[in-house]
Amino acid sequence: MGNSYPNRYNSRGIWKINEISRNLQTNKNFPRGHSRMCQIGGQTPSYVNTISFITMETTGDATDFGDMTTATIEVAGVGNATRGIYGGGRDGSSPHINVIEHFTFMTTGNAADFGDLSVARQRLTSHNSDTRGLFAGGSGAPGDLNTIDFVTIANTGDATDFGDLTNTTVSASAGGSSTRAVFMGGEGASPYGDVIQFTEISSTGNAVDFGDLTRGCRPTNNGTSNRIFAATMGGEISGGSDNIIDFITIASTGDATDFGDMLAAVYASGCASNSTRGIAMAGLSGGQSNVIQYITWSSRGNAVDFGDDTVAHHRNGACSNAGGGLDLTA
């Protein structure tokens, strides 16, 4: 994105039509300013209430953003250009919670109450459009769930039933575009599933089959996407974790293809994206990790180092204000 015109965070100045046209042709968007990714909670091994953030166009270490109201692990995050939201997980007093909280991306500060999920659960996954955030699957009481519910991101309030996954699914990953949500892997019909399924965000209804990952795994929210591709960045497999990055083309259906490798075998990271990068923060990699790493969507290859998170942890959630579910021409 060029720097010779203003953006939505700095509206004063001269808007050069040739620069805006070039930005539309190159990045398929109007100038939006920098994009921010926030990671949320996690296990160090104690539960933490930390929210930290990075600027996704740069590289470097994460910075403190604020706090959750309660130290929580295994939350799922969604967001639009303005607001980040996370829901579910488990805290020190309950193995399954239904709490949804929110914060404003371009400020820093503590999270506040948003509403409740339709059912309390941990190890759920999520994706969003500009307007809707979907929360799918998870483990609740008395067992695993196939539930999909949704919130309207601009409002506050409780989640509403959307439909069902093709089967009960725990520790999956999600990604997608502004129209389609794709749910990848997780524990379902088998302990380490390879099933990919999808649903259309603007409607309500049940998910349908998309294809298969290259291997069965529990990616545990290690999913990220731009508007074209979605990827799982590592995952938990039988006997440990792996460094495999699988990807799909969101608008089609079919099996996943190899993208490259993570810096090391890792799972249970917080992952998010913008139009050019998919980023994984922290995770379990031979112990608690603080490593931030990223892939570049336009070129297949291995992840590279971005910087370090504020603390080594895993089972954290994440979201960004520029992910694949957002209409970047808005």
Task: Determine the mean pLDDT.
Answer: 92
The first-level CATH class of the largest domain is given as Mainly Beta
What fraction, in percent, of the residue positions are helical?
under 10%
Give the full name of the CATH homologous superfamily of the largest domain. Kelch-type beta propeller
The total of helices stands at 1
Order of helices and strands: HEEEEEEEEEEEEEEEEEEEEEEEEEE
Q: What would you say the CATH architecture of the largest domain is?
A: 6 Propeller
**Structural class assignment:** mainly beta
Got a strand count? 26
Q: Please state the overall shape, judged from the principal axes of the Cα atoms.
A: globular
Question: Main beta sheet, described?
Answer: 4 strands, antiparallel
The end-to-end distance, rounded to whole angstroms, is 15 Å
Keywords:
single chain, 330 residues, Neuraminidase, 4-stranded antiparallel sheet, 26 strands
Would you write up a description of this structure?
There is one protein chain. This protein has one helix at 17-27; strands spanning 36-40, 50-55, 63-67, 72-73, 76-79, 83-87, 90-91, 99-104, 112-116, 125-128, 132-136, 147-152, 160-164, 173-176, 180-186, 193-200, 208-212, 223-225, 229-237, 240-249, 257-261, 270-273, 277-284, 288-296, 304-313, 317-320. It is mainly beta. It has 2 domains: 1-33, no CATH class; 36-320, 6 Propeller (Neuraminidase), CATH 2.120.10. The strands form 7 sheets. Strands 3-2-1-26 form a 4-stranded antiparallel beta sheet, with no helix packed on it. Strands 5-6-8-9 form a 4-stranded antiparallel beta sheet, with no helix packed on it. A 4-stranded antiparallel beta sheet has the order 10-11-12-13, with no helix packed on it. Strand 2 (50-55) and strand 3 form a beta hairpin. The longest helix is centred in the N-terminal third of the chain and has 11 residues, at 17-27. Mean pLDDT is 92; it is low at 1-5 and 8-12.
